[in-house]
Each structure stands twice: as C-alpha cells, then as structure tokens.
C-alpha cells in the first residue's frame, strides 16, 4: 500500500479525493495490490474521469496505456510479499497519534452533523490529501479549514450554503486558488467549484459562450480555439476563470475588446438562500453590473458565465529585451509611456523590469491585432541593440507565444501590489522604480522581482461594469516571489516601502484582480466612486453578509 500511495503522489492524481472511503478501505484492510491489473482496477474505482481537467485526463490516459512501474516489478513483488509479514515498519502513527495534522480531531469535533461525512468533502483526518488541498498558489497562506468541499452540482452547493447559514459557519469560495492573499481560504470551510461539471457551450450565432465556473483558463482558451473563437483573458493557464472574470481580467485583447468582466453577458448564481438565480441585463441588472468587476466572493456562488466571444484575429508579437542598464531603462521607459498614448486600439505594449537570482533585464512586448506592419516598435529597435523575438499568426492558434503554462519553476512564496496610472510618470517616480532593481542586484538574493506596466485604455473606457479605474492608461504591478522563508519579512517590507515612495507619482487606486491585504481603505482604492452603489447592492442581495472575506464589500 505504501508503494501505491507513492504512485498516487508521483502522478499527482488530485481527483483521488473523489472516493476517500475506498482509499481508507484499501489501507485499513491491508489489501495488497500485487500486479498491474489490480492497480489499474484500484485507480478506476477511486477516480471519476468525467470531472477531470486536461492535465488529469492525460494522466489517466497514461495510466491506461502503459504498465505502471513503481521502481521495478521485483520491488512490487517484494512489497506484496511483505503483506504476509507479521512485522511492519508502519509509520502511520495510529498508536502514538503523531498526526501530520495535529489538530484534526479538534476540527472534526466542531463540524456540525449536517456537514459531516459528505462524499464530496475532504476532512482533516484524510491527512495527506487534506494537507495538500488546504493550500493555494501562494504558500505563505497557511490555513486549516474544518473541511474542503468540492460540490459536483448546483444542488450540493445549495445544500452547503443553507447549512453554512444555519450553523453560522464562515467559508470561502475557491476556483483556481491564484489569489495572492487568503480571499479563497478560510479556517471555517472552503467551497471549491473545481469539480462542477465542466462545459463550454457556443451560441448558434457564435457571439457568446456559456462557461462553467470551475474551469481553468488554459482549458477555456483551448476549447474556444477549437471553434476559432477568442475572448479577452489573462495569460496564465492555471488561473480559474471565475476569479479572473469577476474582478477585472486584463490581457492581450483588452484594448480591442475590453476587460474580461466587461464581456460578461449573464451569470448563474446561488444566493445566500441557496437559491439559483439567472442574472441578466433584464433580470437583476444591478447585480449583473456589480458582479462585473466586484463579483469575487461578494454576492453568491457563480456556477456559470455567459461571455462575449469573437472571431479569431491575426496577431503579431514582438519582444525587445535589453541587458540591465539603469540609465537606459529610464530613457526607454520615458519614451515608452509617451509613445503608447497614440496607439490605436489594435496595438498595445507592456514594459517589464525583472531581477531574477542575481541577473536583471528590461523589455517591451508589443502586440498588434491585424496584419499591417508593426511600425510602432521600430523606434525602440534602434536603441541600445536589444534582443528581438517575434511570433505571429491567428491568435487562437499561436497560444505557445502568449499562454503561460506553469512548469513547476515558480517559487512558492509571493507578494503583489498594484497602482493605477492615469498620466505619464514623472522622472523621479521612474527613477525610484528603476533603482529598486539596482538594490536587489547589490543584495544578490535568490528570488524573482518584477515591475510590470500593462497598457490599458481603448475599449476599457467604454465598459459597462463596476470596474472603476476605466480611464487609467496603465496598471503597474509590483511582484515578488521567493523560495526561502527567511526572505519573507524583507521582501514584503521592501515592496510596501517602495509602493509608498512611488505613490505620489501614480494614484491611490489599485487593480481589483491583484488583491493586496496591506490596503486599509480598500473600498475606495478598488472601487472609487462606485463603492456606495456597490454597498447598496450588497445589502439588497446579501442582507446578512453571508459572503464575506477580509476585503469583501461591506
């Protein structure tokens, strides 16, 4: 059984939690899986392929296509022989109670009867699986929920909401788990929509798509590409579509088609009563407006989005990268922020400065969404001999050029901050940002530090949504990732101080997708003039403040 568990860990079959009772049965009875066939049978009994995402389906196909080897067949035979051995090296600690989750029984004792023993729940006594699933992308966030629920249908979500309310239980809603703060975590319960039925349904006129809320962005992009359709999104394939869409959603198509939230046509939502409601421009129009930009965890559990989709467009990418030179970076950034103001909506450019494990560079990525020559980059090509990379083709067909497929190389700890920029930065503000890279070059720390400027404008200005800073020309994100815990205090303090120093040159407003718990007056900084209207809508549709987290609308 030990070897089988090692196999599960190696393959990272996250869907094993689908039948925790069978896992414990195999373990408690000491059933020995002595051959490939019985291992296959065990896998098939414990997993439900209907709910798999792309990665998990590939793993299942691999399991079904090849002989599974754990070390060698000899090792399997030796492991099976040990089943008949009366002596064992069992370290499950059932005698001495040396549990991995040392407070598991305390948590279990506090769970009300209505929420116990649900077959779509992961409980603290399911030690290994629970300890994995309680985390999100940012491993600084260390919570011990009483249970993590993966409902498979709207009825199960309704049941959970109703019993959370009855038992006055705190909970968080989770999709991709990529928030850099604990908005999708709770010491109470986690309601994760990942295992809701996954689908994308294209309308007959190819103008909209109905998308289930538990999908990851990579799957959405790929599925739309099969129809040669696109929609404004971000670039990280592992981000959940829900968090991205409900709090903004910026990317390569933003200036042409608006933010992701601007493209929401309708929603299905389970409210605080556990009732399913259809949110459209005709019914619950005020709630639809609120969810488009301020919907993450504030009004209910979204189970479906209807998004505008567009016919594929020809796209040109060109990236200019310079080796680090602070004075050149200042000069080129000044030219960059002046030049982008005259770009048509079909053109955008991002400016990035990066320090990574002792090496620094800066770059500009140009995106043009038509087949005319990309003349906007020519003036920059002549400056200081940059390295130039290009990629072109129809947008949905060249995802390798722009989709970020996480490859396990990102440090586990992170912090992000953001500033909305409404006019070109003064030189003093630019110098503060550029010289912050120099500071880390001197420190030589083993971490990744980025300053990212994303051009906005274009159709963002015309979006009918609660997203507030529509007139911003750029969003600046301050992003740091590190591996060693001893860097945590220094990294967070550094970003906080830099943000305050640069604040006089940017604005008080922040990008809602990039949640930051350092912000005290978050209602003003995220939502600006829209905050009063949002509070009114919140009281109307969630009068008892059932859906809440540290920076929820209140």
Fold and architecture overview:
By secondary structure, this protein is of the alpha+beta class. It has three domains: 2-84, no CATH class; 104-195, Uridine Diphospho-n-acetylenolpyruvylglucosamine Reductase, domain 2, CATH 3.30.43.10; 314-528, Vanillyl-alcohol Oxidase, Chain A, domain 3 (3-Layer(aba) Sandwich), CATH 3.40.462.20. It has 18 helices and 18 strands. The protein has helices at 2-11, 20-29, 36-46, 54-65, 73-81, 104-109, 127-133, 154-166, 217-225, 241-246, 254-257, 285-294, 326-339, 378-381, 427-443, 488-502, 522-527, 531-541, and strands at 121-122, 147-149, 171-174, 189-192, 200-202, 208-212, 229-230, 264-270, 276-279, 301-308, 310-311, 314-323, 347-356, 359-368, 387-394, 413-421, 447-455, 474-482. The strands form four sheets. Strands 15-12-14-13-17-18-16 form a seven-stranded antiparallel beta sheet, covered by helices on one side. Strand 13 and strand 14 (359-368) form a beta hairpin. It is globular. The two termini are 50 Å apart.
CATH class of the largest domain: Alpha Beta
Structural class: alpha+beta
- Please tell me the CATH architecture of the largest domain by its name: 3-Layer(aba) Sandwich
CATH fold field value of the largest domain: Vanillyl-alcohol Oxidase, Chain A, domain 3
The share of residues in extended strands comes to 15-25%
